[in-house]
Amino acid sequence: MEDINKFKHKTKIKVRFSDLDAMQHVNNATYLTYLEEARIDYFNNLFNRRKESLDFEAVIGRIEINYIYPIVLGDEIEVFTRVSKFGNKSVDVEHIIAICKNSKFIKAATAVTKIVYYNYKTQTTMIIPDAEKKVIAKFEELTI
Asked: How many CA atoms lie within 13 A of 74 on its CB side?
């Protein structure tokens, strides 16, 4: 997992009371929601989509989360997001969920999400459109 400084995109997330479990820290399942919010924000920003846009032909193929440090109510968190790898029909999206304390970041979790491009009309996977691949590669300084 990359260093936070290598991530060009971040999304601030407000921890809500409803995010907590009986142990008074953010429930493990809520991390998926944080990743989803950050992922949507990332792609909407990259492709200049409206915040409420759901115009993205993809499905989640896999998510792997490593829980490192508990998040509690009142924590200021940011989710750092980047595409780290291209396939023909998928991209790997890396995330770092970090708590901001005293102008420093504490890694609360790291995650990798495999996004598979998908045509909902034909119900089949699809090749990543070249135009999208170029935008992502340029932003992340990746070679394709």
From this structure: 2
Residue 21's SS3 state is coil
d(CA 37, CA 70): 19
- CATH of residue 14: 3.10.129.10
Task: Please state whether beta strands 58-67 and 90-101 pair in parallel, antiparallel, or not at all (unpaired).
Answer: unpaired
Q: Which of 80, 76, 93 lies closest to 136 in space, CA to CA?
A: 93
Whether the pTM exceeds 0.85: the reply is yes
**Do 113 and 65 touch, CB atoms closer than 8 A?**
no
17, 18, 23, 26: CA torsion to nearest 10 = -90
- The domain in which residue 129 lies consists of 4-140
Residue 117, C-beta contacts closer than 8 angstroms, at least 6 positions apart: 57, 58, 89, 90, 125, 126, 127, 128, 129
* Intra-chain end-to-end CA distance of the chain, in Å: 20
| Structure confidence by residue, pLDDT tens digits, 73-101 | 999 999 999 999 999 999 999 999 999 98
